[in-house]
């Protein structure tokens, strides 16, 4: 029996300029990327796409990716999960990812379908706002960055957050890394 891979329609990623398969929430991610650049003042260089996250959970490696990470002055300040539906069900996933990616917790976590968004404070887990307009602009993050303390996740919480991230992330079947 032959291993036949399904063919996918390809689209050009707005940030990277590379062809990517149009599966899952990819079209939504393209909308978010354009919104960040065209409406929120970020440059393409401020935005990382498909950011690798590698964890060791119970002695086993677990590799995945975060859809979008936004930098201001070289520091990661916002992580975004792009979803096709049910934004609320992805809040905890992006918060866990934001807590684990760096030595500090990335301050702002966002879930978006390209038409709306839920913006969360990573450290407290509390909702900061809803709708695309609630996503902070580059200037808003710059203004707060001087007074914003980059807080590491307490050691005793790291393993729990890894399990939470893997539990939610493993449900992401319609993503490029799985084809």
Structure description:
This protein is an alpha+beta fold. The protein has a single domain (10-174), classed as tt1808, chain A (Alpha-Beta Complex), CATH 3.90.1570.30. Helices cover 26% and strands 29% of the residues. The chain has helices at 26-38, 91-100, 138-145, 155-169; strands at residues 10-12, 19-21, 47-57, 60-72, 75-82, 108-112, 117-121, 127-130. The strands form 2 sheets. The protein has a 6-stranded mixed β-sheet, with helices on both faces. A two-stranded antiparallel sheet has the order 1-2. β4 and β5 (75-82) form a beta hairpin. α2 packs across α4. The chain is globular and about 45 Å long.
Give a quick summary of the entry.
By secondary structure, this protein is an alpha+beta fold. It has helices spanning 26-38, 91-100, 138-145, 155-169; strands at residues 10-12, 19-21, 47-57, 60-72, 75-82, 108-112, 117-121, 127-130. Strand 7 and strand 8 form a beta hairpin.
